[in-house]
Every structure is written in C-alpha cells, then in structure tokens.
Amino acid sequence: MRVLVVDDERNIRHTLRVCLEGFGCEVREAATPEAALAALAQGPADLAFVDLRLGNASGLELLPRLLAESPALDVVLITAYATFDTAVEAVKRGARDYLPKPFTPAQIRHVLERAKAQRELSSHLGDLEGQLAQAVPEATLETASPAMHAAIGFITRAATSDAAVLLRGESGTGKGVLARALHSMSARRKRPFVTINCPTLSEQLLASELFGHARGAFTGAVKDQPGRVEQAEGGTLFLDEVAEMSPSLQAQLLRFLQEKQFERLGEGRTRKADVRVVAATHRDLEKDVAEGRFREDLMYRLNVLEVKLPALRERPEDLVPLARRFVAFFARAAQRPAPELSPATEAMLRAYPWPGNVRELRNALERALIVGPAGVVEPQAFPERIASAVGPGVSLGGPHTLEDVEREHILRVMASTPTLDEAARLLGIDASTLWRKRKKYESDAKPEA
C-alpha cells in the first residue's frame, strides 16, 4: 500500500516508516499540513497516518483538506491525547480509524489489514454494481423522451436534499429504477438502499418487516428482529406501492416521517433512524383520500417532492431503442449473436399500447428470443395480443393467396420450435428449402431503399 505519514515529530515518522516498510508499504513523510498536501499532489496514496497535533496546526483541520484532494484516501488519526470526543469528531470529519500513542507494530499491521480488506470490499461492490447494470438493462437512464428527461432532471435536483419523494406512474414504468438512481446520486449513496413491496405482505408482516419485532410479538417470532427502517440507517428506504398500506400502518409511517421515531412490534422502547423515504404508487391518491382509503396528511408528507413517470406509450421515441437493448441483453445471456428487429416487428411494437409498460416489453422480448428463430425477430414470435396490434393475421378461408397462407404457417411453426431442423421436420420439408424460404421472408420484410 502507498502510505503517507504526517507527524511533526521526526522520531515518530521514522518509526512508522520502518514499521510500514517492513510490511511492504511504500512510504512518504510530511511534517506539516502544507507538506502533506504537496506530497499528495505528487501522487496518490491509499492510507495516511495523521497526527492530531502538528505543531501549531491541527490534524483534524487537515483531515477534510486531505480528503478533498484525494477522496479515496483512508485516514488514520494518531495521537497521545486520545479522548472519546476526539475520536467521534475524527470519524465525523472522515477518518477511517483512530490510533492512540504509543502503538505497537501489531496495531499497525491490524490497521493495514483492515484498510486492505475495506478496499477489497469496495472493489468487489463496484464489480457487483457493474454486473447489476449488465443484468438489469432497463436500469439505464438514456432517453429521447422530453417527459422522461424532465422526470430524470427533477430526480437529479431532488437528490441534493433529504426531502421525501413520491414517484407516481403506471405499474412497470420504472419507478423502482428511478428510486435507485435517486439514491445513487444522493449523499446517502454509500449507505443502504432498502426496498419494501407493500402489497405482498399482510398487515402484521408488513409492520414487522418495516419496523421490526421483539421476541414473542406474534406466533413464530422466536427472536428480536430489526426492520427495514433500521437496516436502511443513513440510507434510503423505498416503499413500493405505498397506497396499499392499511390505515393503522399509515399512522405509524406518518409518525416516523414526522419524528424519525418508531417502535418494534411488541416492544415499548422508542427508537430513532436517519432514513430518507422514497415512495411509489400507481394509484390516484387524491381519489383514495376522498374515499377514505388513504390519509391526507400522509399524502402531503410523502409528496414533498413529486415525480410523474410517463407510460411507455407516451414515450414512443424510446420504444424501439429500449427494445434493442433488451434484445442485446437476452442474446448476450444466451451466448448468441443479437438478432435484428424486422421492420414489421418495429411497426408492431409502435402500434401496441403496452399497458404493462417497460416490464411487459422486457418480458415480451425475452419470450420472442426464446421461441423465435435466430437472425431476425419477427412479429410471429410475440404473443397474439401483441402480434395482432398491426391488424389481423392470415386466417384459413379468408381472402388470402396460397402463398400468404404458406408464409404465415411457416413463420408460426418457426416461432414455436427451437431450431430450423425441428421446424423443417414438422413442416415436412427439407431444412435447406426452409432456410431459403426464411431468407426470402426476411428480404421481403426489409424496406425498399
């Protein structure tokens, strides 16, 4: 590791250098705050040991300046005047650890091992985040839709505050994705992002999941269990479909939003948590308030900042690009070349209203790549409700040519079989003949230049 030692006592600097170099570290020394900043300017460091008293200067005052110069730097404050208050203040200002003098080589080794383990964990988490981005293609915020641009711009501004945010929009529009984006852009991004899907749990289980429970609070509660509020400490709590909460839980949530206080189920002790709440709903909350299903005061507490997400049919500019991203993602997962969307398929995607929004589009394209032949995604690979969006298909006995009937039948068989050979076997023709027919259909589907 690259280590910077900042101490005004030459003997301490020398002792630390010998010890650190013995553990394989590359060491630089500085006796003053200015020398420490100059040393960082010459090259980055992984870890810094900083004395609390630097002559007339303060290591606590130097700490934020070091982190401003090198945000990834781990700082360990060292001092012969160790107090609890000093330790707390050091951590508040960004110190990773606190080491009282005199210290031993074993203590130095322990600090190094902890710092190395933390860096490896951070690297691992970064890799996982990258994998998540690859695993969730809809998580991209790329858009050509003015309405979606406005929503993302508002979220970007909202990320600078801790106010409650209410995300409104139809199911499947990406409210969860936007909630996670809000968290990742906020000052809380290094703390947990915790989700609760409110409609999936009974009232008692949802109360326990949200606020936790004490042992014996209900049948099966064999031990104390913290809730999601405590798990989200310092971070963001996302309440998906918050309008499905019962009236009694709404009252508990309102109290938590107002006072940041709560009790675990079956426990009298009042607890506190520093959590930002982001909620989402597809319901008309104003109507629910008027009909007595949702508390008006809670609605106002939740929608300090309100964002309306457009339905997929309201952002036609994004439909085909999003579909192509899904196709590329599912093809990569199947370790096969990404097929093209035929012009007929693109027309069908634009014609269908997508009541299930982005979630329905994702599922439809995953199915299409499973049942459809490789090369080109045709409308026949989609469920009938979607494929019929551009008009009725060919039907037996209808006003169609024999060639039209043959083409429709061949494409449907190909869409329902895993391989070209299997389709040829069912059709009773040679695979090479079927291959030529498919190429002809693909050529016929391409627009004229």
Automatic annotation (TrEMBL):
The question of whether Cytoplasm is a record keyword is answered with no
| Keyword set, alphabetical order | ATP-binding, DNA-binding, Nucleotide-binding, Phosphoprotein, Transcription, Transcription regulation
4-aspartylphosphate: residues carrying this PTM: D51
Q: Highest taxon of the source?
A: Bacteria
Q: Show the GO MF annotations.
A: ATP binding; sequence-specific DNA binding
Looking at the keywords, is Electron transport present? no
Which biological process annotations from GO are given for this protein? phosphorelay signal transduction system; regulation of DNA-templated transcription
In this protein, which residues make up the domain named Response regulatory? 2-116
Looking at the UniProt entry, the stretches that span the membrane are: none
* Ranges where the Sigma-54 factor interaction domain occurs: 141-370
Name-wise, this protein is Sigma-54-dependent Fis family transcriptional regulator
Please name the source species.
Answer: Corallococcus terminator
